[in-house]
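Why does residue order matter? Because the sequence determines the fold. Keep that principle in mind as you read this record.
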Amino acid sequence: MRTTMMRAMKTACLLVLLVPAGADAASHLHSWQLENGLRILFIADHKAPVVTVQVFFHAGSKDEPANKRGMAHMFEHMMFKGSVHVRPEEHAHFISAVGGQDNAFTTDDLTAYHNTVPPSALEFTLQLEAERMRNLLLTQKTIDSEREVVKEELRLRLENNPIMQGLDKVLHLAYTVHPYRQSAIGEKAMLETVTISDCQKFYDAYYRPNNATLIVVGDTDEMTLRRLTEKYFAPLARGQDPSRTHIVEPPQDEKRSANLSLSVQLPVMIGAYHIANGANDDRYALEVLQQILSGGESSRLYSRLVRKDKTAVAAGGFVFDHEDPGLFLIYAAYLPSSDAVRVEAALQEEIARTRHYLVDAHELTKARNQLAAQAVFRRERVADVATQLGTDGLVAHNFERGFSGDRKYDAVTAEDITRVAQKYLLDSNESFVTLVPQSKNQPGAK
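Structure:
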């Protein structure tokens, strides 16, 4: 009880001290656009002497050529390998030297570069980001080096990770034509074929100010930021707006199932349902539904499979938000001695309950409060605020979505939960993969 009260008090304090929630947050977000098309977002936050500089490019793995999967991820690495005025690895070295941190990430829909530094290093950081936005040097040595780095990541994060292999199988089962069927980490055989010409074309097409958003949050002021962005980013040439191939995944009309045999100790089941895209307001009801099903040890899936039936050691789910239609995932890891048919039946029964019966008021209130609290805690650090802005802007086409999330969750009703469950969580809309322990007489088994 004491822990719960302290958590509630901390949440209440954050609502007051952090970037204001709800409609008031919009007045703290300032945005403008340079003539070359660069969009700039800024929030002043003077609680601590720190500022984050993040650049989001609307270029993810779904924008790669179909025969070059993994190139966007590979390119993320190459952005640290030197430009006209900055030698390889110096960007990271410079940021570290001023006491800052930097990194990058690639998703299906975007690639983002982030730097968190003292305010005294703001100008230098902006200069560094402007430099590599259009002055990157692409060499065969760099491409060969970073190809191997990405291949090693692929080995560690996919080939040597049974759960990720199961998830990869689900993606390939659920998507038949859309690029989301291939995770952003890439495919080894295709990485081998990436050339300097491929990289230059990708860079020239997507790494342009008119395809980027610069986000600054922290201890500075708008006048300073406007002056510095004009100085360093305004001279960069605008490119042609990228031509994008919008591939529409056909509706799924029957359940798809597959088994995957690997050297694992625990079997795992993963189910995936197609859902709406990130801009659709059904996301709020789907996130509340996900919280009811899998938000902690008191959630429905954990309570049913782990506590009551005692057939699983873990159960839950999550929502894959994407710019194009995404997925609602459920899973259960269960004991080898458990009846797999019974485990799957329990998962399906709990999903069916959400379609046929309204959730009770207590469950709904708890889930909404948990999500609202999470939305508030994501505003605790300036870096998290900026990342949320950039992700929401490109995935949901609404940069301010994170500031209205707590109100949107509060507006979700029990009827909304049933409606989205009946709309999306259908047997005919599910792809289901069972990851089973490899028998000793199978090839590769030990």
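The CA atoms of residues 287 and 319 lie 7 Å apart.
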